[in-house]
Amino acid sequence: MPILDNAQHEAFARAIAGGANQRANAVAAGYAAKSAKAQGWRLMTYKPVLERVRELQEELVAATLMDAVQLHRNWSEMWAADIGDIIDPETNTWKPIHQWPPMNRENCKPLFGVEERAVPLGDVPGEWYSPTQPFPVKPH
Q1: How many CB atoms lie within 10 A of CB 15?
Q2: What is the pTM of this model?
Q3: Judging by DSSP bridges, how do beta strands 114-118 and 87-88 pair with one another?
Q4: What value does the CA radius of gyration of the chain take, rounded to a whole number of Å?
Q5: What is residue 110's three-state secondary structure?
Q6: Between residues 136 and 33, the one the model is more confident about
């Protein structure tokens, strides 16, 4: 279906497809705040607008779907990274992905190598702790 002829209808359909509510979308599309609730309801009963919303939602879904090979590659890279490289030890939360070590997408190995460094041992009775952990080597 082509873009709707009425610019307000098109703006409303795009906003609805993105997931916001009818009243807010009617205001964003240029309808008066006083009548936005009624206009939103009316537009959601108008067949061309509904068809356009459905089409836009299908486009959004298609744009976000990932094929199985890419999904496997992404998960392999994530799990190949050492957990110490992706968790911040101070906050015990995930680091932002841009701080993760760069990985070779073909073999899931770090691009710049890894070196073993001594780390403090834990104090939980009965647990085994490695005296070293791998750290990525960053280029200078």
Answers
A1: 21
A2: 0.47
A3: unpaired
A4: 25
A5: strand
A6: 33
